[in-house]
Automatic annotation (TrEMBL):
Pfam families on file: zf-TRM13_CCCH, zf-U11-48K
Protein name stated in the entry: tRNA:m(4)X modification enzyme TRM13
Family statement drawn from the similarity comment of this UniProt entry: Belongs to the methyltransferase TRM13 family.
GO biological process: tRNA methylation
Protein task: tRNA methylase which 2'-O-methylates cytidine(4) in tRNA(Pro) and tRNA(Gly)(GCC), and adenosine(4) in tRNA(His).
Keyword Iron in record: no
EC numbers on record: 2.1.1.225
All residue ranges annotated as the CHHC U11-48K-type domain in the record: 56-83
GO MF assignments: tRNA 2'-O-methyltransferase activity; zinc ion binding
Keywords linked to the UniProt accession: Metal-binding, Methyltransferase, S-adenosyl-L-methionine, Transferase, tRNA processing, Zinc, Zinc-finger
């Protein structure tokens, strides 16, 4: 049988329009698409700190994602993890039952 030709080494440069972050564990570059004029995808934007003066911090409402420090006030207004206002008809623990079953109120709604 003929020996197959070795696959070309694709870790020298990232593909055009792809993230420039080198994933050491996978021994290749990240394959996510980048925005126009950027080198890194959103996931690896933290790796671009040296070329970007803006600092990213953890969201105080949900530390599972990060935001730019200068846009924190704007983010807190629209973050999906913020406490949303309850509707007027909402009553906390309305169907929870009686807290003390020995005291039965005379008027039940």
């Amino acid at each position: 049988m003929a020996a197959s030709a070795p696959a070309p080494h694709t870790t020298e440069f990232p593909a055009e329009g792809r993230c420039s972050y080198y994933v050491e564990k996978k021994k290749r570059f990240c394959r996510m698409v980048v925005a126009a004029g950027k080198r890194f995808c959103g996931e690896h934007a933290g790796a671009a700190e040296e070329e970007n003066a803006r600092k990213r911090i953890l969201c105080p409402l949900d530390p599972k994602h990060t935001v730019y420090e200068d846009q924190l006030a704007k983010h807190l207004k629209k973050c999906n993890s913020r406490e949303k206002p309850k509707p007027d008809f909402f009553i906390q623990d309305i169907n929870a039952g009686l807290k003390d079953e020995t005291e039965i109120p005379e008027q039940l709604v």
